[in-house]
Design brief:
The structure is a homodimer. Chain A has about 650 residues and is α/β, with parallel strands linked by helices. The first copy, chain A, contains 17 helices and 17 strands. Helix content of chain A is about 35%, strand content about 10%. In chain A, helix 1 runs parallel beside helix 2, helix 6 crosses helix 7 and helix 12 crosses helix 13.
Chain lengths: ~650, ~650
């Protein structure tokens, strides 16, 4: 099933209107022969034929207008049709998808009305797909890009591009950032033909193809004995290689690089800086208009748990802040939202906005690695929003992360948002049908960071399931509550981890406590948490003074991050008047109960949902309940056994 | 290297005497053409030529004597030669190896003198080798029996048989008890030719070939829809199959079966008893003189950690005791030494001797799954001896485990000892050269359960390394102390586990605490241990009254098993006057220190040991020290953080 049939996700185009009408299309200033334009018009017809229309005949008039910003659109309907204005083909495409979205959400032509242009220059999906077909941290089947070390192109590829275009994605990295084996050969003629075909499909939907690059390519595929970025032979090798790549793939957007991280090679090997590495590649690729996206996920992954001075949370800032301003114009640093690794709750990375002279891109993870493996419901848009809205205090009036990565703060040209995508070749693309709200939501949010989590949820529900109002409200509420529910039954107050090592699903309170990964909670019989204040690791001081001060004091530190910044006694009184230990018990009992609530909410809308979707999601809720129960009982037992402090309410703790 | 060259282990035949002499051989009552006799005489020549001899010419006279028990021998030397008496070919072979052993250990012909016959009817090695070449819980490379689903036979096979014969092994199970994939087809004509060849090599060294059997064979290879042992079609299928097997492999000893365990199929699936399953196969195989060895490792491996009533330790007795007497004569129950799974310290399984009307075989593990992966030095013979010497109180005067499994207690014909072997295709066979002392020791001990751990260690050292007296003393002391050292730095007082899940190397105190495996320590802020008394799970009551009483009371329970049987407060005073928590700290600091002592002892004999052996073992000690340090610090930190009780001596705990 997975490989031969698949759903249309939010492009299902449910019938909303009873009748059908003929749409006449008028193009002004755009060529119908352009691939993007042609795809947009086909999509328009496909969507409108399916959604329906209660008039007889209507006109879609598309006009080129330089007044509309790049990639933007203006759409305005009346009783006779809709006028779409755009200054470029991508804007036209996005405008068509906007009309389809509004129509699918129930608006008649006369009600269609929107002017929009993207918040972020780059809106990217990062696939962690391996060429053997596996997906690192994939929870939805195998890759639809790769199989047995070959590139797969078929109808599904086109549908994927349609989905991405419909939410405003304009760049896709198709292969895992950990580039090994055959993936190192993606920049050789072994794969150019297929890559070109893929790149052209993408371009027809306004998407640039990107690839992850192996920094050690000169050694691994070039047969050299070094990949030192300052070695002139290495530079020549790259010049020749990149020339060859662009001769074959003229539309390539550039490369994503994970260097010096978790065993990946990088400039540190040769005593060079991260800037040395990134700039060398950037200079080589600049003549072709390409960019280098350099990940900041660099830390010591062979830490000693006994060492309380080294702090993994500090690593990104420590490695990259000093080089601020040293990166060339076509380098972008890609920074994970938090300083650790996609936990359910982390502070915002101090690098975001901490860098003031460097292109920055926010990296989030739609794939639910630590947030429930697309089994547990966890709508992540509220988390992404929190990050975007965070005031870094880097510049007056335009200091949010959204300001920084969009380019508004620094006036720079490159920046944006990237998500580690949560798709695979499962027939529903995301394993959990409801997880597609994260795929959809990331795209929409990266296009318009002002959208609320609820607006996005409702758009997604309407287009995907077209539920009656009451059922829509229920599902919308489920999505909006799900992240905090997941947080409640997992690790408390920002401390993170406590997950089963390697797999990262299910509880193991001490699973990472004595490991080499820098991921500790430091719980003893009196308290728990990591002292990251000026008396501890000093991590809090990596923020601008306003935030540094706030985080440094346990009385002002936002409580949801209390244990991330402070080692706190179990008897500490929280703002609610509860002790810390009682909060741990209460939130875990509550979280598990609420998870059961989610499952019964889902049951309550059973009749409004297609049976196969109901069943698939129901099966996941069954697993989520097991998981929530395990988390509740293991965390509560762990802390009861360690603290000896009983639950005030006398509930069962083992 | 591993596959094309290998060491001769304890058959290295170091030169002990300066000269060489001619040995005349006189055979009386034995045929020189018999494979076993011929192999014995070749081995004699090979060994003596290498060891040397200070006379001119000598005679080895071999006489058949029915006065010598089966498989036994009498050897007696004088200035002119040696007289070997035996009643059968195996006895002759073992007698020759005994002469070689004594000579290699420095005895002149005139000093050779021993009368011996095996303590146990069956002395077996169990290989957990898979047909893809991997070895379950193998720490010495890949299988030398299997590669790419084919059987491998070469010179190494013959050497393996020589080694086994030299220590008295008379049965070998070549494939993993978890029979899957190609291994299910070992009883089909796909493998008969090769198996016959292997079986004949084995027979030339007095070894019977055995195989592990897939209880679900009627389904998996027979295409039936059931393997119900009482189904007449199933029985017919087995009758035909076993007939076919014995037509092709007339020398086959029989089968080892793991049923209804850890996901393996078995009679429980059909509502049948373990006896129903074993007896059916036994009846089918009886006409060919074959036996069925049925493992008692049956327990619930999907336990809920919250459930304190279910006790995995009880399972073997609970499942098998009631059926005592129901098993047919050619069935042997193979029982692990302890009720859990080869931990560094467990009580003896109450099934051993608890069954009084059933053939029993003791199963131990030479492969160091939980005892250091053949990285950490852990000479296991003292552990095996403790088990053999344990008084079960099943019968007056002959109640030890050695009495029970040898057949002395019940007067039964079948029984003995089996070891999960620790070999692989590493050039030194056992990864750690010193781990071969366990391979050697198991064989010798199963042949003569009266040998001491020290006698065996010295025999092994002399034959393997032929060290000067001082160095032999040092190495012997290292071996004899190693098990308790390993115990000191790992889990305390019999509680076991606390290992990294799945891999089973290195510490993870809570690694199995919230798992499905029934392996819990139940530590909280006040104490640790599992209550297995009559107030707890009642496991202690599975023993005969004398032992049940002893174990039931924490004041009389042997302290090395205290936490296995009792939940004990950290402040409990041990016989040494120390509190439990102080004992935990002290033993972990001491164990780590002693491990360092072992490593420096090894350094101190460096010059007396071949360089390549020195280096290989040294590398392992380096790893052992890391491991011991991790164990020390993680266990101490865990209990300090949990109890809040400081180390009296103020040493560093994290």
């Amino acid at each position: 099933m997975g490989k031969t049939d698949w759903t249309q996700l939010w492009l299902t185009y449910h019938r909303v209107f009873e009748g059908n009408c003929t749409w006449e299309t008028v193009l002004e200033g755009f060529a119908a022969s352009d691939a993007v334009v042609s795809n947009a018009l086909s999509e328009f017809k496909r969507g409108m034929d399916s959604i329906g229309c209660d008039s007889d005949s209507m006109t879609l008039k598309i006009t080129k207008s330089d007044a509309v910003p790049a990639e933007g659109y203006s759409i305005k309907g009346d009783d006779n049709g809709i006028l779409l204005e755009a200054s470029d083909e991508r804007g036209l495409l996005y405008g068509v998808f906007a009309i389809l979205r509004q129509t699918a959400c129930g608006k008649r032509a006369a009600e269609v009305n929107e002017t929009a242009s993207p918040s972020n220059p780059l809106r990217m999906m990062n696939h962690w797909d391996n060429m053997d077909g596996s997906i690192e941290r994939g929870y939805s089947g195998e890759s639809f890009f790769f199989e047995n070390e070959e590139i797969v192109i078929n109808d599904r590829t086109v549908d994927y591009a349609r989905f991405m275009a419909s939410i405003g994605i304009n760049g896709v990295v198709i292969n895992n950032v950990n580039v090994k084996g055959a993936a190192s050969y993606l920049i050789t003629d072994r794969y150019f033909d297929k890559l070109k075909e893929l790149s052209e499909i993408f371009e027809g939907y306004g998407i640039k193809l990107y690839m992850s690059l192996n920094f050690a390519s000169p050694i691994e595929i070039g047969g050299m004995d070094t990949c030192d970025p300052l070695d002139s032979n290495v530079i020549s090798w790259w010049e020749k290689k990149i020339k060859e790549v662009y001769e074959n793939l003229p539309g390539l957007g550039g490369f994503l690089v994970k260097a010096d991280s978790e065993g990946r090679p990088g400039p540190f090997t040769y005593g060079r800086t991260q800037a040395d590495g990134a700039n060398m590649l950037a200079d080589v690729i600049a003549p072709y208009g390409g960019i280098i996206i350099w990940r900041c996920f660099v830390y010591n992954c062979t830490q000693d748990w006994r060492d309380t001075k080294t702090d993994r949370a500090r690593a990104g800032y420590d490695y990259f802040k000093d080089l601020d301003g040293a990166y060339h114009d076509n380098v972008i640093l890609q920074i994970k939202n938090g300083p650790m690794d996609f936990q359910i709750r982390e502070p915002v990375s101090p690098l975001l906005g901490g860098l003031t002279k460097t292109n920055q891109m926010l990296e989030v993870q739609a794939a639910q690695e630590y947030t429930g493996h697309q089994i547990d419901l966890c709508y992540l848009i509220p988390l992404f929003k929190e990050v975007l809205d965070f005031h870094t205090h880097c510049a007056p009036g335009k200091d949010t992360v959204a300001d920084v990565v969009s380019g508004r703060t620094m006036g720079n040209r490159l920046g944006g948002m990237a998500a580690v995508i949560n798709t695979g070749n499962d027939m529903n693309w995301t394993g959990d049908d409801l997880a597609a709200a994260n795929t959809y939501g990331f795209g929409r949010l990266s296009f318009n960071t002002d959208l609320t989590a609820e607006e996005i949820a409702r758009e997604w529900i309407r287009q995907t399931l077209n539920l009656p109002a009451k059922e829509e409200d229920i599902l919308c509420s489920m999505l909006l509550r799900s992240r905090e529910i997941y947080e409640r039954y997992t690790s408390p107050l920002g401390i993170g981890w406590m997950v089963t090592p390697n797999g990262h699903y299910g509880p193991s309170v001490d699973g990472y406590e004595y490991s080499r990964w820098g991921t500790y909670h430091r719980a003893d019989h009196l308290g728990i948490g990591v002292d990251r204040t000026d008396k501890g690791t000093g991590y809090a001081q990596q923020y601008y003074p306003e935030n540094a001060k706030l985080y440094n004091d346990p009385h002002t530190c936002p409580e949801e991050l209390l244990l991330f910044f402070h080692h706190i006694p179990y008897t500490w009184e929280l703002k609610t008047g509860k002790t810390l230990i009682q909060h741990i018990y209460d939130s875990h009992f509550l979280g598990e109960e609420e998870a059961r609530g989610l499952a019964s909410d889902w049951d309550s809308i059973k009749d409004a949902v297609p049976e196969e979707i109901y069943t698939r999601v129901k099966e996941r809720f069954d697993l989520q309940l097991d998981n929530a129960r395990e988390w509740r009982d293991q965390v509560n037992s762990y802390f009861y056994r360690k603290s000896g402090i009983a639950d005030e309410k006398g509930r069962t703790i083992y």
